[in-house]
């Protein structure tokens, strides 16, 4: 329910736009993910896959650098990759990471590559839950098996929190390529280089922004304080800005799956912070 409300708010706030791109048949579409795997990132990848299919692209390559993210968003990305009519490759750039959720996305790819100095694995769920861990481990094993990769090593990403360097991952058969650059990786898999990078639509850019946990919390706290300050000393500016920030923050929290009770506690905390600033007694803080 919270996700439905959040999506409805975003549809009202932002136009349903897509990235303005010229048709580019016969090219590779590039998606760059550098940060937490969130619902916004999932929407960005789904958007790029739809675009790639519409222009008859050779394939989609995801340049992936992440420490992990949300399981539900990861599930959406894997499903989109599996259902895509164009092949999808994932490349971890030199020095990058495909930890936790990133390792799952890498295992779902048709072609998996990494750059020197990069690492993959460490997918044990946090906070740890045995039921979730067992489910994710079997999922990773299944993804690896379906792609002809080392299922035992993939499963160990969860069961042993195993992490591998690019060279180790290649040696163990977790990936197929170690390449110095994205272009080199594309050449190795027989795709044309360079790729055409697509950017998220305006609406998706907002979703990416507000589903980053720190951004969502900051929007709620700052927006709530501005709104209360504006109501205390009406200016119509602080109230408007504060309300907008608060709505975006709550929408982001809804897309992250934060429950109504947690959101209510967050708002209660904002109110007590405001009262503390007003009274200065140090009790409500």
Describe the structure.
α1 packs across α11, α10 (213-232) packs antiparallel against α11 (237-255) and α10 crosses α12 (260-279). The protein is α/β, with parallel strands linked by helices. Helices cover 55% and strands 13% of the residues. It has twelve helices and nine strands. It folds into two domains: 18-200, 2-enoyl-CoA Hydratase, Chain A, domain 1, CATH 3.90.226; 203-279. The two termini are 32 Å apart. The radius of gyration is 21 Å and the shape is globular. The chain has a six-stranded parallel sheet, sandwiched between helices. A three-stranded mixed sheet has the order 4-6-7.
Placed side by side, the strands forming the largest sheet appear as 8-5-3-2-1-9
Could you tell me how far the N terminus lies from the C terminus, measured between alpha carbons in angstroms? 32 Å
For the record, the CATH architecture of the largest domain stands as Alpha-Beta Complex
**Total number of helices:** 12
CATH topology of the largest domain, by name, is 2-enoyl-CoA Hydratase, Chain A, domain 1
* Most strands sheet: 6 strands, parallel
Order of helices and strands: HEHEHEEHEEHHEHEHEHHHH
Indicate the CATH class of the largest domain. Alpha Beta
Give the tally of structural domains.
2
DSSP helix fraction: 40-55%
Helix and strand layout, with pairings?
Elements: H1 2-13, E1 28-34, H2 39-54, E2 59-65, H3 71-83, E3 88-92, E4 97-99, H4 101-108, E5 111-114, E6 119-121, H5 130-146, H6 151-159, E7 163-165, H7 166-171, E8 177-178, H8 182-188, E9 196-197, H9 202-210, H10 213-232, H11 237-255, H12 260-279
Helix pairs in contact: 1-11, 2-3, 2-9, 3-4, 5-6, 10-11, 10-12
